[in-house]
Amino acid sequence: MKSKGIFFCLLCCLASCYYDSEEDLYPSSDCNTTNVSFLNDIQPILANSCLSCHNALSTIGGGVILEGHEAILRYANDASLVGSVKHNSGYSAMPQSASKLDDCKISKIEAWVQAGSPNN
Ligand code: HEC
To answer: Of all protein residues, whose CA lies closest to atom 15 belonging to ligand 1?
Structure first.
């Protein structure tokens, strides 16, 4: 019985990994990526997962400041914001020393950058 439980867990992990990659291609319908708002969507994500290292006064974020729209624009424009949260090669995987953001948050960040990173 015990081993069956472990096997089932493994299956779940595999299934969720597979599901993840599919979500990248076809964002699920309960993840709304239209009209993403900097104020209501992007800023809270960064505040929760990034600003502990990347606030304006931080000395542990490698000099990368993600506080305030203007500061973030630089990383939106040079593609490192999206590259780092998607763990693309060539970028430092973020958030550092923590698990990847969930797919919906990543999709929102990507959609916001694709929309021209508006201050909305
Ligand atoms: C535990 C601290 C920490 C957290 C949390 C963290 N970062 Fe970083 N981040 C760093 C450090 C240190 C660097 C500079 C060294 C490096 O590139 O690895 C960095 C670099 C970056 C860079 C530049 C990467 C590049 O390849 O040029 C970006 C963009 C970035 N972080 C975005 C984020 C985002 C977005 C989040 C939240 C989802 C986040 N970081 C969370 C510590 C952190």
So the answer is: 62
